[in-house]
Amino acid sequence: MNKVIYLDNAATTQVYPEVLEAMNPYFTEIYGNPSSIYTFAQKANRAVLSARQTLADFIHAKAEEIYFTGGGTESDNWALKAAAEAYESKGKHIITTKIEHHAVLHTCEYLEKKGYEITYLDVNEYGTICSKELEQAIRPDTILISVIAANNEIGTIEPLMEIGQIAKKHGVLFHTDAVQAFGHIGLDVDEMNIDMLSASGHKINGPKGIGLLYVRKGVKIRSFIHGGAQERARRAGTHNVPGIVGFAKAAQLADNAMDEKIAYETGLRDYLIDRVLKEIPYSRLNGERTKRLPNNANFCFRFVEGESLLILLDQKGICASSGSACTSGSLDPSHVLLAIGLPHEIAHGSLRLTLSEKTTKEEIDFTVEQLKEIVDRLRKMSPLYEDFLRNGAK
User: Fold this and answer.
1) Residues 6 or more apart in contact with residue 293 via CB below 8 angstroms
2) Residue 107: which region, alpha, beta or left (left: phi > 0; alpha: psi -120 to 50)?
3) Where in the sequence numbering do the catalytic residues fall?
4) Residue 330 pLDDT grade (very low, low, confident, very high; cuts 50, 70, 90)
5) Closest listed residue to residue 84, CA positions, set 143, 139, 141, 134
6) CB half-sphere exposure, 370, CA atoms < 13 A
7) pLDDT tens digits, one per residue of 80-105
8) Contact criterion met (CB below 8 Å) for 208 and 130
9) Is residue 368 within 8 Å of residue 276, measured between CB atoms?
10) From CA 260, how far away is CA 273, in angstroms rounded?
11) pTM for the structure as a whole
12) Which pLDDT tens digit goes with each residue over 186-226?
């Protein structure tokens, strides 16, 4: 197949033509600073206001509850740091999980150095937290629960409704990193009792460098970037108008086609999973079989190094990953795979394939055929696999 097969949509996505078309005027024609008061600039301001409303409607929030950021990582940092500071008079205990994105985990490590106590919840073999254990972890000084909506590596969707109910019952704030879930599954901040939510434009066919933080009205949260009065004086800096417009357009497109997209991607994902598990011996699926993101398939192949797998797939024109793009320079096995109980030697052989509605069955068939040959080739070079076969392949 003489073309690139892009199966790394969890890392980033293609900016759709409709999104780019919506953004273009705000680079060259309507380029005024939306904070300025003259008529020309107010055209840009109206575009920002309209985008804010579109994104709020997408998660059933109010426009004034949406704050624009530079991306999901900033949103996670802001939610945790600013909430911790605002509520420290109540307590300094935060609950999260062992499978969060590093934007949350590293922020928690930072807060620990500032005197906060963090409880890191375990997950089961599929990457799902236990709601009972979450409730048992809540203390009088607990101020925040932060649980990822859907894991960026293994795709498992967490029980947001139950988590929100528990948090509300105990009067604890609930933040969710929805960067991977936003635009891929339905999210309702009121129904799920979510107090803060992080999202990013480039995960849903929008531009890079733009994200949002939803903050429920009444939640105290401190300013994150000081300077001007933008974002109700909580996040200073000139608005990225093209990015904001593009993010809203991408969300609008996702909303209009969500049911069809979910159905298509789920069918193709399941076809991919079935073929891999049936046709490649000693492979396993990581994460929930059905309660997972529609476009996510994450595997481990015994006796194979993930890095070698990626290099050989790349030579065939197939773009994939072994986990989060944010940790692609690390030689350590995924913290998510270790948290679900996989030993290091198996976790090292992981592969994440994430689809889009433009991925075809032909591309999946080609990928599986190449994957079978590559895994077989790598295993033939593995002394561990040779010993395994010699000892009766148990």
Assistant:
1) 150, 155, 157, 180, 181, 184, 185, 354
2) alpha
3) 326
4) low
5) 143
6) 20
7) 999 999 999 999 999 999 999 999 99
8) no
9) yes
10) 20
11) 0.95
12) 999 999 999 999 999 999 999 999 999 999 999 998 889 99
Q: How many CB atoms lie within 10 A of CB 344?
A: 10
Tokens matching residue 51: 């985008």
Q: Which two tokens stand for residue 71?
A: 């991306």
**Which residue type, as a one-letter code, is found at position 280?**
I
CA distance 64 to 214: 9
**Positive or negative CA dihedral for 205, 185, 182, 371?**
negative
The answer to whether residue 326 scores a pLDDT higher than 60 is no
